[in-house]
Amino acid sequence: MKVELDNIFGRHAARRLSAFAHGELSDAEAARVAEHLRSCATCRAEFDEIKFGIRLAETLPAREAPASLWGGIEASLARDSAPRARRATGARFRSLTTSRLAVVSCALVLLLVGGVAWLHFRPSPGGAWDVSAVAGAPTVGQSRVEKRGRLTVGEWLETDARSRAVLRVADIGEVEIDPGTRLRLVETGQTEHRIELEHGRVSARVAAPPRVFFVDTPSAVAADLGCAYTLEVDGAGRGLLQVTSGWVALEAKGRESKVPAGASCATQPGAPPGTPYFGDATPAFVVALSRFDFAQGGDEALSVVLEEARARDTLTLWHLLARTEASGAGCGRRPAASDDGKQRPSGGARNITGAGRVATGARGVRRRSLL
Length: 371
Prior knowledge:
Shape: globular
Radius of gyration: 29 Å
Helix content: 40-55%
Distance between the termini: 28 Å
Strand content: 25-35%
Order of helices and strands: HHHHHHEEEEEEEEEEEEEEEEEHHHEEH
């Protein structure tokens, strides 16, 4: 699919991103752009800039120009359009153009100044989502939701041990809220919808272009790439993402984990997101991966991961390869010191880097799968 998309877009989809953000592409073309954005960091970054520009434009208020401004423009145009028999045609055209440009420039300056002032003093963003009580009586702020309610930007929605709710995410999907959950609506607009999950468990189903719906947690940000998933956060801020369809990107500390359908990924406060793994991985594999990600498991944990890995676990090994290359984690034992105090290689495979061990382990997994 990536080769096909590269052929269609000429490697990047930059010329289609604005139309994609504004919903101007056909369904087939929009699907191709969405698929391209999942694998192209360059285009995703440009798409984020386009969305920012759209959000900025959305914040500018519609204002009618003062009557005096338009009167001045009309008078100026009337004067400039009067015949001037003694002036050469070229000079008359230059004068007319200069006057019009001056008037338009003044109008633009006035609008710009007004827009900047409004941005500086504007009220908090508006917007609200529908809330439906499924069981018990969830609360929005201090009010109980008996059947239906509204969650506005900045408000908290809470469910106790006996209540459940469904939150409608504008017109792109919904979030099921389990008992014992607390979340807040942070932002909702044409190009971005965002909630903050303090603790509890939510199940989201979203049909939208990539990176339109976000969930902030104490340990990472979940960026929806067009999918369905469950996200759980405990009282200590630790999170667990489980994807049931599509893809989700978990981002924190400058690192990204891309999690596909059928896979999970753990997060912990103060640490980059963990390494994704498929739900049918062996318990020993999952435990060792957690130790490697969050408990400085090093060589020992990496060895267990490589020993337990199957062909299906190449997703995990791909993430580990990039991370061990960047950090040097999982290296073998230190070179031994000789009598003269200089470091001497101790020889053998024990001294290869963690990235080398992962690459070697991946080849071993492939050989085992062919047997």
